[in-house]
Design goal:
It contains five helices and seven strands. The chain is α/β, with parallel strands linked by helices. A five-stranded parallel sheet has the order 2-1-5-6-7.
Length: 155
């Protein structure tokens, strides 16, 4: 099964996990990078006026650099940090702008404490692909945990 790993990483934690997953799955990587990079102040979620909070409340699309061509892939692993028990808006933008018709999609996330919640259910209507699984990993998830998850996706 040909696999693409598309991910957004605000502080590098999700990027490191995506890289380890790519190695375990022998997958290609696509970074979903915002056109306007986030500064540390933008990500200071304890500040109600921080960009991350304004974007989540405003529910606006977040432009990103490049486009992922998913046509050649069977499975797309979509990674992101959990913000307020949900995916960041840039993930919603990615799903709206990327043709995933007929693709299997598995979500993976990192978080300091938030669970996935209803993230998969909220994202499913934004894509013509099928979200088959959603899992939050610890930042230090080992290769065996990643390989076990990947094996479950290939059934």
């Amino acid at each position: 099964m040909k696999t693409l790993i598309a991910y957004f990483s605000a502080g590098g934690v999700t990027a490191a996990l995506a890289s380890r997953l790519a190695e375990a799955a022998q997958a290609d990587l696509f970074e979903i990078r915002p056109e306007a990079p986030y500064s540390p102040a933008d990500l200071r979620w304890t500040n109600p006026l921080a960009r991350c909070n304004r974007e989540k409340i405003g529910k606006k699309d977040i432009p990103y650099v490049g486009r992922a061509d998913a046509a050649a892939y069977d499975l797309v692993l979509l990674g992101f940090p959990i913000w307020y028990y949900a995916a960041p808006n840039i993930i919603e933008t990615f799903l709206k702008q990327t043709d995933l018709t007929g693709k299997k999609i598995a979500l993976f996330a990192t978080s300091g404490g938030s669970e996935m919640g209803k993230t998969a259910a909220k994202l499913q209507p934004l894509t013509k692909g099928e979200i088959i699984d959603a899992k939050r990993f610890a930042a230090n998830a080992d290769q065996s945990a990643l390989q076990q998850w990947l094996a479950g996706l290939n059934k």
